[in-house]
């Protein structure tokens, strides 16, 4: 099956999905649209995996959590290699290490390789773990014999790889494998590829193994200009990596980051109106309508001064554009230009102390019109 001329990535995805549905080439879940297809014959295709020299030499292997790669995960565990599985949509971190119980039989290992097993037998792997990944397995919707790959369109596989590059877990020489149905191997115009797109070195299907010999460079790290504030808000580990790269002097400007006039952020204004502010229980700040860009800092010393807090925030690289002081309530609201900066501040303020007190730091939540203490809609409150 070959794609039509002048197609887009989405055209190719739809063509593959429609073809597989019309010919009943996939197992549950159905329909395959907007998924990595759980194609019939996935287990047979994965049987090629342990025969690859790259597999035999690898000690630590990252395999995506999708259903068609279940058998690949089993082979990693059965070979007593270290299996890393990305957390779904990267919500709680980057990797989980799958650790079967002592003396696990093959049947138990097969359970460990399922989505339920990944949840039950996993431990998080942090950014400071110094993990080195020797082999990467990704899912695909379409792939070409040249190694060009198209995923389901959400960009998580590309982002996972770029994050692994940023944390030093992989290099340009780390092999990448994908496991697909034969009908998913199609011609893909190179013009559709972008710098952040991940390519593959091996394609495993139920009937063959394709060594692509792909010479196109793999992503060299996170392309921050492709990352949205919304994605930053959903992926905590991405915020941590951005903070690290910013401290290293890299350009971490986001795709939809708000621009301000030159010098507009130079002044740090303070709102001192404790009489007009409600108690800590409601914690609202009048007139504020962007709660996701506001951070609450609580449990400050009773004798803390706003100038002292400002200096401490600046020292942490978390100075806000505006600060609303709640001295009598031993707290303050820190207002940032966008959600990404707010999350970055939270990351930098982990373990933050002022005087002898460890501060409570959290994203302010939005209080609805019928919320407690009669707060107005759109007002930020401390997140409980």
UniProtKB/TrEMBL annotation:
InterPro entries documented for this protein: FTHF_cligase (IPR002698), FTHF_cligase-like_sf (IPR024185), NagB/RpiA_transferase-like (IPR037171), Nucleotide-bd_a/b_plait_sf (IPR012677), RBD_domain_sf (IPR035979), RRM_dom (IPR000504)
Keyword RNA-binding belongs to the record: yes
Single GO MF annotation: RNA binding
Region (Disordered): 272-292
Keywords: RNA-binding
RRM domain sequence ranges: 293-366
One Pfam entry name: 5-FTHF_cyc-lig
GO cellular component, one term: cytoplasm
Entry protein name: Methenyltetrahydrofolate synthase domain-containing protein
């Amino acid at each position: 099956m070959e794609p039509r001329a002048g197609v887009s990535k989405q055209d190719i995805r739809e063509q593959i999905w429609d073809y597989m549905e019309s010919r009943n080439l996939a197992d549950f879940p159905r329909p395959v649209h907007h998924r990595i297809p759980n194609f019939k014959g996935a287990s047979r295709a994965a049987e090629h995996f342990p025969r690859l020299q790259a597999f035999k030499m690898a000690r630590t292997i990252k395999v995506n959590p999708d259903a068609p790669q279940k058998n690949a995960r089993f082979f990693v565990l059965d070979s007593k290699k270290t299996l890393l599985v990305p957390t779904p949509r990267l919500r709680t971190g980057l990797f989980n290490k799958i650790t079967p119980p002592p003396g696990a039989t093959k049947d138990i290992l097969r359970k460990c390789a399922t989505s339920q097993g990944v949840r039950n037998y996993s431990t998080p792997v942090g950014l400071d773990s110094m993990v080195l990944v020797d082999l990467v397995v990704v899912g695909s919707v379409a792939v070409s014999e040249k190694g060009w790959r198209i995923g389901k369109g959400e960009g998580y596989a590309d982002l996972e790889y770029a994050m692994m590059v940023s944390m030093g877990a992989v290099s340009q020489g780390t092999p990448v494998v994908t496991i697909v149905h034969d009908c998913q191997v199609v011609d893909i115009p190179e013009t559709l590829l972008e710098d952040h797109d991940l390519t593959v070195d091996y394609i495993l299907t139920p009937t063959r193994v394709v060594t692509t010999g792909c010479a196109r460079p793999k992503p060299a790290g996170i392309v921050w200009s492709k990352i949205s504030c919304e994605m930053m808000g959903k992926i905590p580990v991405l915020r941590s990596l951005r903070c690290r790269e910013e401290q290293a002097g890299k350009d971490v400007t986001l795709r939809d980051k708000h621009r301000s006039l030159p010098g507009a952020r130079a002044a740090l204004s303070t709102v001192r109106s404790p009489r007009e502010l409600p108690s800590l229980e409601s914690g609202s700040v009048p007139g504020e309508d962007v709660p996701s860009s506001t951070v609450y800092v609580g449990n400050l010393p009773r004798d803390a001064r706003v100038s002292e807090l400002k200096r401490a925030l600046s020292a942490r690289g978390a100075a806000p554009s505006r600060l609303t002081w709640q001295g009598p309530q031993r707290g303050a609201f820190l207002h940032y230009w966008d959600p990404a900066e707010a999350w970055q501040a939270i990351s930098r303020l982990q373990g933050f102390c002022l005087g002898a007190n460890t501060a409570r730091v959290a994203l302010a939540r939005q209080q609805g019109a019928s919320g407690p203490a009669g707060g107005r809609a759109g007002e930020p409150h401390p997140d409980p």
